[in-house]
Recover the amino acids of this structure.
């Protein structure tokens, strides 16, 4: 029981940072690529939250093979941070739907020139996908013990 309290306390301490990082992540493209490349489809999509969620699941399984108790602890905190970050990315993208600027794809620019409808659909769909990824991570972070064991076991084809 003490382990659960410590895990929840650690996750609560990291939550504000995860939310702030997630809200800022889509605009990192300005610093990396310049303002002319703002709204890059990599940063303004669910790609980074999906990669982080997959990475966290891989890490949980790797640790579980050696130390199941540690995997539950690290996975619970990591999935909480990734989940909250993904939900914040989703919120940022949904806010961007209402701010007129095109999502700029390499080599082709906007998907449909002269309109922002396609960009709104891109941002809205990826915002909702990021929120769904976040919810899945948060559910995985706070599963009960029996569900953790089933999640960590490799699937057989």
């Amino acid at each position: 029981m003490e382990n659960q309290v410590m895990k929840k306390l650690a996750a609560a301490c990291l939550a504000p940072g995860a939310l702030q990082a997630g809200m800022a992540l889509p605009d990192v493209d300005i610093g990396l690529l310049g303002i002319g490349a703002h709204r890059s489809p990599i940063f303004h999509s669910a790609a980074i939250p999906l990669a982080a969620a997959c990475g966290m699941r891989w890490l949980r399984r790797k640790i579980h093979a050696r130390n199941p108790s540690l995997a539950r602890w690290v996975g619970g905190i990591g999935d909480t941070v990734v989940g909250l970050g993904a939900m914040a990315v989703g919120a940022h993208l949904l806010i961007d739907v209402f701010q007129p600027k095109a999502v700029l794809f390499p080599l082709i620019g906007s998907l449909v020139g002269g309109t922002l409808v396609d960009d709104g659909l891109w941002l809205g769909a990826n915002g909702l996908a990021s929120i769904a990824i976040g919810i899945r991570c948060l559910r995985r972070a706070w599963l009960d013990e029996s569900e953790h064991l089933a999640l960590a076991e490799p699937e057989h084809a």
Remarks:
- The chain has a mean pLDDT of 84.
- The chain has one domain: 2-152.
- DSSP finds six helices and no strands in the chain.
- The longest helix spans residues 68-96.
